[in-house]
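Fill-in record for NADP oxidoreductase.
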Amino acid sequence: MKIGIMGAGSIGSVLAQRLSAHGHHVKIANSRGPETIPADVLATGARAVPAADVAADVDVLITSVPLIRVPDLKPLLTDLPADAVVIDTSNYYPARDGHIAALDRGRVESRWVEEHLGRPVVKAWNAITAQSFVAYANPSGTPGRIAIPVAADDDDDRALGMSLVEQTGFEGFDAGTITDSWRQQPGSPVYCTDLTAEQIPAALGKAIAERSPKRRDLAMHIIAELMGDPTSDLGKDFLVRVNRLIYN
Ligand SMILES: NC(=O)c1ccc[n+]([C@@H]2O[C@H](COP(=O)([O-])OP(=O)(O)OC[C@H]3O[C@@H](n4cnc5c(N)ncnc54)[C@H](OP(=O)(O)O)[C@@H]3O)[C@@H](O)[C@H]2O)c1
């Protein structure tokens, strides 16, 4: 498949490495230009291109930028083929993105993204930390393999998202429609807690819409405080341990 990736940060870079290693034709862009994308991101065959070129002639476009930057992408999508599937990895963090009124009122994050991109999206790879994404890729059948929830309104698009998640080393879990995707947003029990496919249904089921944003902000506060303290011994899987404690 021909895949464009908009965003070459913690998540976009790993997606480019894994999906090109799997045999896809991958191009990747950031906001500063192809020459700024590190060589290791391109080591398995992905091509660095200007942001204006990433959407043209692709089967799949993955958007992986800070949520507040999503509206900037619309003018870059004029050449995106009408039948290309858009997969978005973004999450809303007010501490990073500033307060976005619609999201503060409880709007589903991916619906806001869809409005700003002008396209339906598949929500995938949003609910795994960058650290776990790098460290815990495993082949299908590995005991305890981590699963990643994938939501989309279109069944075929969701199945495609799940198969691409699978190709990046994680089990793709069918999490239903975008309307229900608030269940995998920051602060929910499934969010960045490294669960298996067997554990995910219970986690999605016990999500509480009003509670998740409060827990998200509480966790971010604690994480920022601890990470800013040079005397803290955070240890392995620190983020996942904090998330499991607070989001459960
Ligand atoms: N980090 C995580 O643990 C994690 C996990 C799951 C999901 N997510 C979500 O996934 C998204 C990406 O996260 P990340 O951690 O990979 O972010 P990141 O490391 O901050 O990287 C963001 C990337 O987006 C690019 N970008 C920003 N504005 C752009 C624009 N207008 N056009 C083209 N490229 C643009 C940046 O390019 P420049 O550097 O050139 O500006 C950079 O390559 C976020 O929404 C985040 O919430 C993150």
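KEY FINDING: Residues 6-12, 29-32, 51, 64-67, 69, 72-73, 89-91, 125-126, 128-130 surround NAP (CB under 6 Å).
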